[in-house]
Amino acid sequence: MSVAIIDSGGANIGSIVHALRRLGAEPVFTADAARIRLAERVILPGVGAAGAAMEHLRNAGLQDCIRQLQQPVLGVCLGMQLMFEQSEEDDTDCLGIIPGTIRKLQASEGVRVPHMGWNTTETVTDDPLLNDLPQQPWFYFVHSYVAPVGAATLATCRHSESFAAMVRSGNFRGVQFHPERSSKVGARLLENFLSCN
Q1: What is the arrangement of strands in the sheet containing 41-44, beginning at the earlier edge strand?
Q2: Which ranges of the chain would DSSP assign to H, the alpha helix?
Q3: Catalytic residue at 77?
């Protein structure tokens, strides 16, 4: 299966490439709109800041390309956040695929920001992305900003406050955690993405 991993200007792409290859996919890291449109699956990764990532996508002419994709798309971490309308990080206008604003995660007594490490998620709505996962699966998180819980939320997580850990709007899905760093459960989620509509 062909998978386009969109070049959104971040680093650390190697781990997701290797995770997909282990599942039999053929990932290509690209900013070429034509290759992205032709891929059977598309992943929008993200490591870094919303402002820089959106500027990178704008400069590459990929905003409209991403919005118009018809095949299954998975946003990972910052990539999921970029699917929303706006981010408080750098006061950034994002892709606008999912309603809502990404905001800073609030620290509280005994709870640090960034949220870094393993945490459980709670399913809100069934989706093929969640097939054969445990009832409260553990995933690996690294982030300081969060998406609001709303109509698009598939699963939530709690770290000082509840936030959207998985979202879906049509063919667009997103996960706040890093499935490629989340052991067997993360591999299963990626396998589900490769097989779902």
Answers
A1: 26-30, 2-6, 41-44, 73-76, 172-175, 161-169, 153-159, 122-123
A2: 14-22, 33-38, 50-59, 63-67, 78-81, 183-195
A3: yes
Which amino acid makes up residue 97?
I
For the chain, 197 residues long, give each residue's pLDDT as a single digit of tens. 999 999 988 766 889 999 999 999 999 999 999 999 999 999 999 878 999 999 999 999 999 999 999 999 999 999 999 999 999 999 999 999 999 999 999 888 888 999 999 999 999 999 999 999 998 999 999 999 999 999 999 999 999 899 999 999 999 999 999 999 999 999 999 999 999 98
The domains of the chain, with CATH numbers, are: 2-195 (3.40.50.880)
Q: Which one is catalytic: 115, 143, 159, 178? A: 178
Alpha carbons 107 and 118: distance in angstroms, whole number? 17
Distance CA 15, CA 187 (A): 12
Report pTM. 0.96
Residue from 160, 143, 156 nearest 47 by CA: 143
Catalytic residue among 65, 77, 94, 157: 77
